[in-house]
Each structure stands twice: as structure tokens, then as C-alpha cells.
Amino acid sequence: TWKWVVGPMFLYLCERLVRFWRSQQKVVITKVVIHPFKTIELQMMKKGFKMEVGQYIFVKCPAVSKLEWHPFTLTSAPEEDYFSIHIRIVGDWTEGLFNACGCDKQEFQEAWKLPKIAVDGPFGTASEDVFSYETVMLVGAGIGVTPFASVLKSVWYKYCHDATNLKLKKIYFYWLCRDTHAFEWFADLLQSLEAQMQERNNADFLSYNIYLTGWDETQATHFVVHHEEEKDVITGLKQKTLYGRPNWENEFKTIAERHPGSRIGVFLCGPEGLADTLNKQSISNSEADPRGVHFIFNKENF
């Protein structure tokens, strides 16, 4: 037995040593941004740190816990001079980090008072393959939208630098959210992309649909009253927010008709139930003919 155990144990110890060494490297928090709906953004710098779109890191804050490591998706683009994560305050550890960063105080927090952070990573995900397709469907559910913040930022940087060499030609973006508060921090990025694409006369490059899956009677009345306004009452975008859940069969069929003979990447960051639905639709809407349209499904679950 020991002959079969020694090899894997040696590799495991090597991996732990590498992770320990990486976690000891100095990380500098350059900015802490408080977003609505109890979400904070940490912008950090680390010597030699290199990332790709949609990757994630493990984070430890010794001031909160000396042993706990938590995974967070990177929301910055590789083209930016820092890396960032968005953290939603939903538990003891995130609440402790929120307080350690001074987010519970009204006065300005000095940089030297910010807690020490250890970072291990980045680690790869399916989202890295976005630029391998000409057409992609990006589907995020709730806070699962974070990897696509990185993707959309990177697409924009690449598009501005040299659009002719960019293989990706069309993005269909879907965001499903249970309540209106979660829209606020991410809508700013979409507003910026929307305005810049229109300035360059290429508004068709990004098609996005935002779905609100839960609301009360008061909100519904407010939505009806302001429905005719030029911009959406929730997000401030020209694209109106849709209510309920997408009809995925219709969405897949429409995209297949628009892009015959294409390989279309379908990327999800969301719950397992939604993953099963999209996987089934990807299979049923792909043609048997190799020259026909094919949907390639990729997922990250949380």
C-alpha cells in the first residue's frame, strides 16, 4: 500500500509548499470601494501576478482568521495594472473583512491601516476560452456575474486596441437576478460599454438581457408607471429590464438562426439547476451535420 500512497502524498506536499510560498508574497490593497447591496471591491497589486479573464484566487485575511481561505472570482481585466475582487457581505468571515477594511466607519481610512491580505492563485476556469469563439452566450445568475465583469472589460480593451484581430465578433449576455439591489454595482460597467459601443457605431457587438426574477406589488406598480421612459428605471440602461425567466428554447433557436454553421460558446456561472437546463438546450439545438451550428457548453457552479 505504501508504494501507492507515497507518490500522491509527495505531490500533495509539494503543492502545499508552493501554495504556502505564494501566500507569503506581499499583497498591497490599493483601493477599497463600497458598492450598494453590501458589496465591497478590493483592488490589489502583487509582484509577478499574471491573470487571464474569468480566473479566481484564494484569499486569506489573518486579521479575521489565520486559517480560512476563501475563493473569489477576479473582476478585473488582464490589461489593468491591478487585480480586483467583489465580495458580497453574507457571513461571519466577509463581515469581519468588511469591518477590518474600515467599511463600517464613516471617516476616510488610511492605507496603512488596511489589513494584510494573502493571495494564492490565480487558478483557471472555463471562462478563459471566451476568445476562442466568434459568438458567445454569457449567462450569469446573481453574484455569478463576476467572471463576466472581467470578460467584458477585457473585450473592451482588446476592441479599442485592435478590433480587426479580435476573433470574438458577437456577445449575447444574460443576467438573472432575484432583486433590484444587485443590479447597481454591475450596471455601471454595462452603461460604460453601451455608451462606448454607440460612439464607435458598433452597438450590435454586445446584446444583453437583464432579467428580474423577483419583485413585489409596489415595485411592479413603479415599473409600469416608468416603463415608457427612455432609460430603464432600475439599471439606467437603454435596454429595458425583463421580468421573469428567459425562455431558453426560444433564445437558443434565435441565436442558431442568426449564426448558421457557427461554433457558439455557452458560458455559465450559476446554480446547478440552470446548468442542466443550458446543457440540454446546447445539445438539442446543435446540428448533427459537422458544418451546422454547434453550441459548446462551459460552466462554473457555486
From TrEMBL:
**Any one Pfam family match given in the protein's UniProt record, by short name:** FAD_binding_8
- Name the coenzymes or cofactors required: FAD
Alphabetical GO biological process terms? defense response; monoatomic ion transmembrane transport; superoxide anion generation
CDD domains in the record, alphabetically? NOX_Duox_like_FAD_NADP
GO: which molecular function terms?
A: metal ion binding; superoxide-generating NAD(P)H oxidase activity
Catalytic activity of the protein: NADPH + 2 O2 = 2 superoxide + NADP(+) + H(+)
General function of this protein? Catalytic subunit of the phagocyte NADPH oxidase complex that mediates the transfer of electrons from cytosolic NADPH to O2 to produce the superoxide anion (O2(-)). In the activated complex, electrons are first transferred from NADPH to flavin adenine dinucleotide (FAD) and subsequently transferred via two heme molecules to molecular oxygen, producing superoxide through an outer-sphere reaction.
The protein depicted here goes by the name NADPH oxidase 2
**Source organism of the structure:** Pachyramphus minor
- Lineage of this protein's species? Eukaryota, Metazoa, Chordata, Craniata, Vertebrata
